[in-house]
# Entry
Amino acid sequence: MAEPDRTGKRLPLQLISSDLHKSKNASAHRTNDYMSNDLIVRRGQPFTIELHLNRPVETIDHVSLKAETGHSPSGSKHTSLVMPLSSSSSGTSWSATSSSISKNSLNVTIKSAIDAIIGRYRLSLQFSSEERTTTKFLGDFIVLFNPWASEEVVYMESVAEKNEYVLNENGIIFQGSSASPRSRPWDFGQFERDILEASLKLLDSSLDHRRDPAKDLVQRNDPIYVGRVLSAMVNSNNDDGVVVGNWSGDYTGGEIPTKWNGSVHILRQWKESGPVRFGQCWVYAGVLCTVLRSLGIPARVITNFRSAHDTDRNLNIDRYYNEDGTENPKTADSVWNFHAWVEGWFARKDLGSTYDGWQVLDATPQEKSKGLYRLGPCSVKAVKEGDVDLQYDVPFVFAELNADTVDWLVYPDGSKVKIHSNTHSVGKLTSTKAVGSRARADVTNHYKYAEGTPKEREIFMKAQKKLQESSTWTAARDTVSLAAADSEPATKPDFYATFKQSSDTLVGQDVTLTLTVKNTSANSMSLRVKMIATAIVYTNASVNDILTQDLSVALGPNEEKNLPLTIAYDQYGNAITPSHMIKVVAMCVDENGGNLLVETVIALKNPPIVIKVTEQAVVNKPLHLEIEFTNPIGEDVENSVMTVDGSGLVKEQIKIDVPLLKKDEKFVTEVDIIPYRTGQRCIIVDFSSDKFFHVKGSLLVNVAED
# Structure
């Protein structure tokens, strides 16, 4: 029995102090890497706090905890939750259980619901009596999705995959071309200072939240909804989201997209001052992956080589060329050399368990989805099975990997002939970083059946039939019929041609390749060959002309000839874009009017950056780096800057001015950094100059405890 006060009345229960045990709970919830002062927990998993009171709690006392989220908490909306102190948990709903640790102190274990709204909560202690209710604020805490809880919609069974797709901050994004895939480091940095706060701010800044905050908030328990909102918010279109896209080649007023080493600087800049200029697909993908991982949704970046953009939804990529091999302005469809998006891992209760697992989310603003520039979540399994009638945006993703290509030759009078079609030229080497290593994992077979098999054609026809039956097919059908009406049957040529590239070519070296042409008939023939080389961006759009070469080739019956082509550095050095890509097109015409167009893309390789660490990295102790870069071109390199980044290693980016470098001259610099978090970390070095667009180098470092 509680002691009475001087008036003889029972002492009212009061809170003396409390302890949220942030460090202990963070360790149990695998949130201890977040650089935040908040208590961060994963939903459906208990966490324990400590309360010190002025006297013991008695059965007559009415004690409860209250957790509230949002600006107008409501019990009916599950944004205000009252948990009476109990001796046992109440199953799947929010609960608070207590146990005594001393006469006047309690351990209280709070368990959030497995489908709790994610985000920031305010935690309070309530003492209720007939006369009044007293509320004492205990502190804020943040609830995240929980891939470790088996009842969770984001549950992922494999420990190695959770370590990779939730906890790993060191990324690899694949770029280049299907003939020469490249990798570049990306620092996700989801646990860095301000990143979780920026992720939560993205949700609060969405159009959905601005239009109806209460409706938006109550849906944040669902990764389907959260992923869709974030795919819109990571681009700046419609809503002043994170990244402003730019594919023009002119980056005045912002940064060249190749500059970024990771998501951290981008998200911090957006949090402080709004949309960040500029980005392209891999930037959108890297930032979206960071935000999803920070909120507890397993996520990974996917790169699809030869990725189609089907503007009319007919599953045909129609490309139009003039007689000289240049692209006709009427071309609307395109095939990007690569395109990057994100997959998030969660169940699809809206579609059924067949479609659980990886879901495509794409923040690159290519097409609107129900009025906004966003994409997904689109079930990867739905794409593979051609279920293009399911939510969200399955037809667009299906076409990216499965569309057929049709090339047309347009004559000066506007007439055209079909010169080539291909059922398997898009969706190549669909790639992501392998679990636990920096190798490339090929996931093409997750998205489609093997090219050339009856099953692949069966799925294609199934998807096309479903689209024909949908309301979106009308425009596509009209486009197809118009093209067919205006065209003449193509003359099948009695020859073939193909490009063969030399091995990897570094920027600064001459490019050599060969066009092989073969007469497939028993008669002699003469070919006119026009080869055009242009500097392109990674979307395959031509930016600068490099060279044109006209040839006449005589071929005997069944004869094959090799036509060499050399593109000197002097010719392409000032023309290439930051994508470092050159497209070569050959238009081949025989005397009977047979036409064949072939093309290839050369992805030039950057010179290496060498990073050396000769000692064990230890947290909070200086670590010495040695960095080397050698000028590989035959001219001086000026206006060079080197930067050093890395989550857990470098709190503020280090910038180094590099002196003029003559041909073959090596630049060596030494840098001291102080690692501030343990575990495997990645040093990322960027070198940029008047001749090189953001060359990247990286090195993994294991940081030990002190």
Notes: The domain at 159-487 is CATH 3.90.260.10 (Coagulation Factor XIII; Chain A, domain 2). The first strand starts at residue 15 and ends at 19.
